User: Fold this.
Amino acid sequence: MTEPRKTANAGAAPVIPLFEFPQFDLPKFDLPKFDLPKFELPKFELPAELRAIAEQGIAQVKAAYEQAKAAAEQATGVLEHSYAAASEGAAEYNRQVVDAARANANAGFDYAIVKSPTDVVEVSTAHARERFQALAEQAKVLGALVQKLAAETAEPIQTGVTKAFQNAA
Assistant:
C-alpha cells in the first residue's frame, strides 16, 4: 500500500517578517474652511472721455466686422461663380469626349466592309490615315476646351482676389 502524501505546508517554517512596523493611530486633520469675503462693488460713473473711447472702439470693431463679412460674402460669390464655370466646362469636355468616342467607334464599322485582300490593305491604310487625322483634330479641340475651361475658372478668382485687396487697402 501506499502511504498518504504529506503536503508541503505541514513541515514549512513559519513566515517571520523582516521588519515590523508598529501601527500608529494618526490624528485626522480636516482642511481649514475659508469663506470668501463679501463686499459690494462701489457704484460709480465712467468719465465721459472713457465712455467715448469705448464707444469708438466698439464702432471700429463693428466696421471691421462688416468689412470682413462683406469680403467673405464676396469670396463666396467668386467661388460659386468659379465652380459654376468649372462644372459647365467639365460637362462640355465630357460631351466632346463622348462625341469623339462615338465617331471613332463608327469609323471602325466602316473598316469592316471589305471584299478582297487588296481592299483590306487600301481600306486599312486609308482608315489609319483618317483616324490619325481625326485623333489629332479631337486632341486640338479638347486641348482648346481645357484651356478655355482653365481661363474661365481662374478669371473669377483672379478678379475677386484683386477686388478684395483693393477693398482692404
